[in-house]
Amino acid sequence: MMIAFLGPPGAGKGTQAKLLASELHVPHLSTGDMLRAAVKARTPLGVEVEGFMTAGKLVPDRLVLGLLRERLRAPDTAGGCLLDGYPRNVAQAEALREFLPLDRVLYFDLPEQELLPRLTERRSCPTCGTIYNLRSHPPKHAGHCDRDGAELIHRPDDRLEAVRTRLQVYQGETAPVLEYYRAKGLLRTIPAGGSVEEVRAAIRRALA
Ligand code: AMP
User: Of 14, 69, 92, 152, which alpha carbon lies 20 to 30 A from 85's?
Assistant: First the structure.
């Protein structure tokens, strides 16, 4: 099954994508994670995209598409995959249709006023990717990952200025993608304001 998670930054897509991918035994393909890995490794692509990402802007379509197509060539995606963070605009959705038709698109619905604190208080583990929130899901030992003890990071694009830009970009460019998939009958809305378990149950119902 080919599934995509859509929704504003901070709605919990990454957390749920990790859980669902391991439950379905399909790879979790997060374009944000792939791009961050390229930035960290200082590849030519990483150097090219870093400025866009730090500012909270979208990386040019051709660069993300190239990265995704390359990843989808790997045999582990043959039985399905979970896309998280792609498509981010209608042009990306159109491009995807050409080479990876989706079976379901889940929209994580959360009021805008809840997104800002979720993002600015988010911390993540640079090694295992576990996501924390300083208020609602803090690590047991301040500043360190519960799983592997690594020092948690505050993503540069989770700082206030970049978060504001990301929310604007979402409204202007990504929100129209919802209509695109609604018109095709693929979209299911997930109320994303509950606990991790509640949202997980809503996802299971939407995919049943
Ligand atoms: P995310 O981890 O999904 O919040 O993505 C972090 C950042 O990576 C975004 O703010 C963009 O700069 C970039 N990015 C991730 N996915 C895409 C995409 N599909 N198209 C363009 N830029 C992307």
Answer: 152
